[in-house]
Design a protein that fits this description.
It is built from 4 helices and 2 strands, in the order αααββα. The chain is mostly helical and 102 residues long. It has one domain.
């Protein structure tokens, strides 16, 4: 059985947490900014949002729909990146599982 409190004090675990946060926070901030820009642009950039790009499709409509695609893309990117984080965490636990005093 691995001692999780011992693992939590290692530099390897700190690096794993650091790399995870370096990946997660920019993604969260990016999506948050994109998501909040839609109502802000709808309120303050009406000429841009109502501009017809092709047919009856306006920039605002296209931007709103694109947020769904961005959300799915970010979800898939996180899914694959999380698998890498999980693999590193399992390696770390396995490393300390068989040590004396663990």
């Amino acid at each position: 059985m691995a001692s999780y409190s011992k693992i939590a004090r290692t530099e390897e675990f700190a690096e794993l947490k650091r790399s995870k946060m370096i990946f997660i926070w920019p993604v969260v901030i990016l999506f948050f900014c994109l998501y909040l820009s839609l109502p802000l642009m709808a309120a303050y950039a009406k000429p841009l949002m109502s501009k017809f790009l092709f047919g009856n499709i306006t920039f605002g409509y296209l931007y709103g729909v694109s947020l769904y695609f961005v959300a799915w893309i970010l979800a898939f990117v996180y899914f694959f990146k999380a698998k890498a984080f999980d693999k590193k965490a399992k390696t770390l636990v396995d490393k300390y599982r068989h040590q004396k005093g663990a």
